[in-house]
Amino acid sequence: MSLLRKIVAYEWAMWRSLCRWILRRPLPLEAGAKPFSYLGAVNAILWAFIVLSAVEIPIFDLILRHVLPWEHLRRTVLVLGIYGLLWMIGLMAMLRMHPHVAGPAGLRIRNGATFELLVPWDAVASARGRYRSLPSSRTVHLEEDASGTVLSIGAGRQTSVDLVLRQPVAFDLPSGRAENVTEVRLYADQPDALVALARRNAPDPATPR
Predict the structure, then answer these.
(1) For residue 98, what is the DSSP state?
(2) Which of 25, 36, 37, 47 is most buried, by CB atoms within 10 Å?
(3) Residue 62 lies in a domain
């Protein structure tokens, strides 16, 4: 039942984001907050799927109309094709409408409407821009190193910003609690701007290690 609730919540968030995108109603930001997009890492892939889906719908409809006499099957395939196309557009809208947000309290790291993690500025020791590849397309990655746990929130199997923490921090993730996190890595389309802002907001900024 928990899985069903997650699926329903994801679908609802996606369609709501699509409506906001169409109506040009972005989520409100608190005073002094700045959004940072991460869509660039997957933008080309999403557009490729959207274009292919749009092309496939009339092609399959034409084939089924002239090859198979089953009108119900043709209509079902047509509905599924249109739904799939809208789903991909909705996914793009959800990523676009829920960017990372650097606010007065810290950096709110997001992946669509279903993942959000706040890293307080006072927990950040240093920030640097560095592109890294991730081993899979999963959003959240945890790996151990000599100093503790590295938490990566990727987009398009990569990250572009490293936030080194002052001391180990525990974060609540969708898969459970991550203890002793000493570094948080994320992807942003403008890593230099995000790094500069993080360094300004972190108390007593140190030189990146």
Answers:
(1) S
(2) 36
(3) yes
